[in-house]
Amino acid sequence: IELKGVSVVAIEGDCVAAARVDAYVRGTSSARTAEEALRGFTGGRGTTPWLWRNKEVVHFVEWLRERNASSAAACGFAGLDLFSARASARMVVEYLELVDPPASRTAADRYGCFIAASEEEYSKACLEDARLDARGASQRVDATRDGCERVLAELQAKRYEYWDLGDAERHFNAERNAEVVVSAQQFYAKRLTEPDVTWSVRDQHMANSVLKLRQDLELLRGAPPRVAVLAHNSHVGDGRATAHARQWNIGYLCRETFGAGAAIVGFSTYSGHVTALPERGSELPLKHVLKPALPSSAEALLHANYAAHPGPKVLNLGMPGDDARIVDALRAPRPQRFVGVNYISDDERRRHYIDSRVPEQYDCLVYVDETSALEPLDHLDEWDHSRRSS
Questions:
Q1: CA torsion, points 366, 372, 377, 379, in degrees to nearest 10?
Q2: Residue 389: per-residue pLDDT
Q3: Is the pLDDT of residue 235 over 60?
Q4: How far apart are CA 88 and CA 95, in angstroms?
Q5: pLDDT at residue 137, as a whole number
Q6: What is the pLDDT of residue 386?
Q7: What is the residue-averaged pLDDT of the chain?
Q8: CA-to-CA separations, 331 to 46, 262, 325, 327, in angstroms, rounded
Q9: 364 close to 315: Cβ distance less than 8 angstroms
Q10: Cys bridge to 272: 171, 210, 370, 373, which one at CB 3.0-4.6 A?
Q11: Which residues are CB-neighbours of 217 under 8 A, at least 6 positions away?
């Protein structure tokens, strides 16, 4: 942010929840603390609350607010994900009520059959409908998608007309939320009927959100912004360099869109602790011991060479210099560990390792030999066994 002039931090998180944080860091929110601003991330589906409601993010958000208060070029905070469908739909309807009440009522009608039920219920209804009447189900899903797309298209077509009636930034926020609804409808319609494609639907939405964010900020401020994307390694690394190459992800799509303008930084660790859900038995995250990486893994190679390195080791994968021997060894496919929402320690190889070519995934890799777990703001006694037993 300070050295490269980053204009916005865009996260793998809900659009609506991130907008609350954005208002806070810009000093336009009624929230009194970063913790209060981050409360939008509680209880939502898809993105796990502790990913953003943790002590590290609180410190960052407070720093960003203080920095923005004394800077002529404020840095914003935005969400890229699609797990806020119903909240996003409400925001679009409420915005249109201010600038075009008839269009607001039309949007509410078009969104109706999708947002009347929960996202989970909508997915189950699509699956049951497909079992009973595949052709009719497809037509009904298409009709719902068409309605959601029409709301977005009309917002875009009347952009400048609506600007004159309200606020440009609020209009762009409404457009981005309308895009969330379009993508979320596709995601949840396919979640149980075509689960293999939902990863690509989600990551295509997040990559398009990066592009949309850049375009909006350039129109508002007159200069192309720098966007820093914070997401899981599996999303930001170029997926073509993994065994899951058939799936799209943010890293692949941004490299295709921005070329050399996209710089990808990955993170790696050998052992330590991690915050994640267990396989079963709890809806709350636990602090797990992260096992030492498998002997054949990329992490084990890094550990063998950099365990004694003071602090994080940064490898420039494009220009490795003294690290060339290690980087060359990483060019061949090796198991690479990815821990997401769950951590299944007794089935690591199958559940958490993907064969990959690390130097093709990232431009730079930050290696921390022993990692510490994110400390959530909520349910600390359940999260930490030692706290519970003391």
A1: 140
A2: 47
A3: yes
A4: 11
A5: 80
A6: 58
A7: 92
A8: 33, 20, 10, 7
A9: yes
A10: 370
A11: 7, 8, 225
262-295 b/e (C-beta count within 10 Å ≥ 16 → b): bebbbbbbbbbbbbbbeeeeeeebbbbebbebbe
Kindly report the backbone phi and psi dihedral angles of residue 284, in degrees, each rounded to the nearest multiple of 5, phi listed first. Answer: -110, 145
Q: b/e per residue, 47-69, with b = 16+ CB within 10 A?
A: bbbbbbbbeebbebbbebbeebe
Give me the helix-helix angle, 168-190 and 119-132, nearest 10°.
Answer: 40
Average the pLDDT over each of 37-41, 133-137, 152-156 and give the range with the smallest value.
133-137
The encoded tokens of residue 126 equal 């699509």
Helices (H), 133-268: 134-157, 159-165, 168-190, 198-221, 233-236, 250-258
CA dist 313 → 134, 248, 372 (Å) = 53, 29, 16
pTM (predicted TM-score): 0.93
Instruction: Please tell me the distance from the alpha carbon of residue 253 to that of residue 60, in angstroms, as a whole number.
Output: 28
Written as six digits, the tokens of 119 are 């996202």
Helix (H), strand (E) at residue 366: strand 364-371
Distances in Å between the alpha carbon of 191 and those of 21, 113, 183, 370? 29, 17, 12, 36
**If we measure between CA atoms, which residue out of 90, 113, 252 comes closest to residue 173?**
90
Phi and psi, residue 80, nearest 5°: -105, -15
Maximum Cα–Cα distance across the chain: 66
Which distant-in-sequence residues (6+ apart) come within 8 Å of 183 by Cβ?
82, 201, 202, 204, 205, 208
Q: Which residues contact 131 (CB under 8 A, 6 or more apart)?
A: none
pLDDT greater than 70 at residue 390: no
Euclidean distance between CA atoms 18 and 9, whole angstroms: 10
Reported as a single tens digit per residue, the pLDDT across 258-285 is 999 999 999 999 999 999 998 766 778 9
**From the centroid of its chain, how far is CA 28?**
24
What tokens appear for 388 in the block?
A: 């519970």
Summarize the confidence of residues 323-339 as an average pLDDT.
Answer: 97
Nearest Cα residue to 85 out of 144, 169, 29, 170: 144
How far is the C-alpha of 378 from the C-alpha of 348, rounded, in Å? 27
Separation of alpha carbons 315 and 301, rounded Å = 13
CA 141/CA 128 separation, integer angstroms: 12
